[in-house]
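[step 3/7] inverse_fold.run input=structure_tokens len=154
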């Protein structure tokens, strides 16, 4: 994989995502050192079945390292604000951003209401311990987890 490919973020957006919210996210990705390539998901009749507003395909280790490197900067806060701002244009329903690793398809779900400690924990996660995903932040247990990985026999 080339150096430029490592810093590319393929972004798939729901067509109902307002452009200003898309711009917030692509600006945050650019501030983290990624070149966002945006494409719109084809419109579907049953669009209500889509649970996410944005899917970002990016090497997760590289992404998390970039976020950790920028944790004390505006780029880090910009990412959090972009995730919080995502709303469905038609009904203002908050929807998550899903990060997906293109190599192993592991997904991390960033809900709009994630507490600051969730982002801090995310930066320290050992992604090698997860095989199936998706990873969600469990607010009751104050930790990231994958229910599928927990249920799978070792």
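[step 3/7] decode complete -> sequence:
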């Amino acid at each position: 994989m080339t150096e430029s490919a490592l810093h590319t973020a393929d972004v798939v957006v729901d067509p109902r995502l307002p452009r200003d919210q898309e711009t917030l996210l692509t600006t945050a990705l650019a501030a983290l050192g990624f070149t966002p390539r945006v494409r719109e998901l084809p419109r579907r009749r049953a669009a209500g079945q889509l649970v996410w507003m944005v899917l970002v395909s990016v090497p997760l280790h590289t992404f998390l390292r970039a976020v950790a490197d920028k944790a004390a900067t505006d780029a880090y806060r910009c990412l959090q604000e972009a995730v919080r701002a995502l709303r469905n244009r038609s009904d203002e329903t908050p929807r998550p951003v899903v990060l997906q690793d293109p190599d192993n398809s592991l997904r991390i779900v960033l809900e709009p209401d994630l507490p600051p400690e969730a982002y801090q924990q995310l930066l320290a996660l050992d992604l090698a311990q997860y095989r199936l995903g998706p990873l969600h932040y469990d607010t009751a247990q104050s930790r990231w987890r994958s229910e599928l990985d927990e249920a799978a026999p070792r």
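[step 4/7] annotate
Helices lie at 3-6, 19-31, 60-69, 74-85, 116-124, 147-151.
Residues 24 and 81 are 8 Å apart (CA to CA).
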